Amino acid sequence: MAKMWAGRTDGATEKLADDFNSSIHFDCRMYRQDITGSIVHAGMLASKGIITSAEADQIAEGLSGILEDLESGKLAIDMECEDIHMFVEQVLTQRLGDVGKKLHTARSRNDQVALDIRMYLRNQIDEITELTKVLIAAVTDKAEVYCDTIMPGYTHLQRAQPITFGHHLMAYSMMLLRDIDRLADCRKRMNLSPIGCCALAGTTYDTDRHFEAVRLGFDGICRNSLDGVSDRDFCAELMSSLAILMMHLSRFSEEIILWSSWEFQFIELSDAYTTGSSIMPQKKNPDMAELVRGKTGRVYGDLMGLLTTLKGLPLAYNKDMQEDKESVFDACDTVKMCLQVFAGLISTMAARKDNMKRAAQKGFINATDLADYLVKKGMPFRSAYKISGQLVAHCIQNGTVLEELPLDIYKSYSELFENDLYHEIDLVTCVEKRISEGGTSTASVLAQIAYVKEVLSL
Questions:
Q1: Which has the least CB within 10 A, 47, 161, 179, 228?
Q2: Residue of 64, 261, 277, 383 marked catalytic
Q3: What gap in Å lies between CA 214 and CA 227, rounded to an integer?
Q4: pLDDT at residue 278 is higher than 80
Q5: What letter would DSSP give residue 75?
Q6: CA–CA distance, 67 with 33 (Å, rounded to integer)
Q7: In the annotation, is 156 catalytic?
Q8: How distant, in Å, are the alpha carbons of 33, 60, 339, 366 from that of 153?
């Protein structure tokens, strides 16, 4: 097959070299963006008198026909072509003859590729944002169901203070909201049009770059033609945002895996989002959460691969930059799949309230509240801290918990103890009196839920 770039050379390359050089097997997914951009480019050429309006209309009609045929399956993408841009131009030329050859006036594949990938990734950000919102809604709805369900909060994976399951879940809603913000920021910087930068130096034709930018939904144009064709910051920034999002999902997955284990038994996962063992019939494995945790490393690898590819490239375009697409496409595909699975996993998850509360009681996580009780009675905090620790040690030695310790035992440590201490160290009291904004009380958790729902409704 003759190459579009044949001229300086005869365009003949070895089959192995052709396959190595080709990108159509992965950039073919950008056919809509390529055709859309080309239709607008033809319109710009006509608006500036570079081609006639009749020719632009003919090109637009031809491109629309190609898109319709691709969508219907009437036309198959020729994987022997070098890339999707050459395929579209080749089919257009076959259908229109010399008029089709005029489309590529005042542009290069360098700025054409840069345009297509910005448009494609802009759409991907929109899709990922919507999927993240669905997950946030699932997490927030579950938090509302368990807004007053007591569980132990942890530091160092050691039981620390009592919180509610709803409060714990809302921490992830807040993380995911930040992920949406990061994606929006990335989209803003991505949304500048490179078309018209041409190969690297611009063009001698009197073009209107803003014409194309406005009609393709961009906020402006890349201001330097060298930068316009060689910039892939937006890919790296998107993949960085996706890596952070996956990190959040991975942390959540780790906790789900722990909570669903026999050692914790805090939650029950739906059979629809677990698997069994081929040899151990008692097993119910949290494979979906484990896969999300594992795929986080994959997205990290995509990011590091691109950063490594870009780190030594001189300006402007280099063929190395073809390596941007597989990694960023893979990251987007992986994140979208993980978000969809995770939303289902969360929405079908159930808490085992009794086990959570029992773990909270056995962890002596109301010991701080016991010390605070003595402080309110006038005892210095360090003295109160020591007595509380001694009482915890007594409970451990005698197989009991602070709530069940008789008052006379308390009084043997301090006469400041009275019957009202049992109310103060009750886990419900411990949770509900943490009224500071953002805290774990039911009212605070409900306020967090209301905030997230308001943000999602905007």
A1: 47
A2: 277
A3: 20
A4: no
A5: S
A6: 10
A7: yes
A8: 48, 61, 26, 11
- What would the pLDDT profile of 302-325 be if each residue is shown by its tens digit? 999 999 999 999 999 999 999 999
Q: Are 225 and 202 in contact (CB under 8 A)?
A: yes
Question: Using an 8 Å Cβ cutoff, are 51 and 39 in contact?
Answer: no
What's the chain's Rg over C-alpha atoms? 31
Domains identified in the chain and CATH numbers:
15-105 (1.10.275.10), 116-190+229-357 (1.20.200.10), 367-425 (1.10.40.30)
3-state SS of 250-312 is HHHHHHHHHHCCCCCCCEECCHHHCECCCCCCCCCECHHHHHHHHHHHHHHHHHHHHHHHHCC
CA distances from 204 to 50, 138, 196, 197, 201 (A): 11, 54, 11, 11, 9
The tokens describing 81, both together, are 């072509």
Is 212 within 8 Å of 274 (Cβ atoms)? no
pLDDT at 18: 83
* 327 is an active site residue: no
pLDDT per position as a tens digit, 327-384 = 999 999 999 999 999 999 999 999 999 999 999 988 898 999 999 999 999 999 999 9
- Quote the CA–CA distance of 168 and 147 in Å, as a whole number: 9
- Residue 11 is predicted with a pLDDT of 56
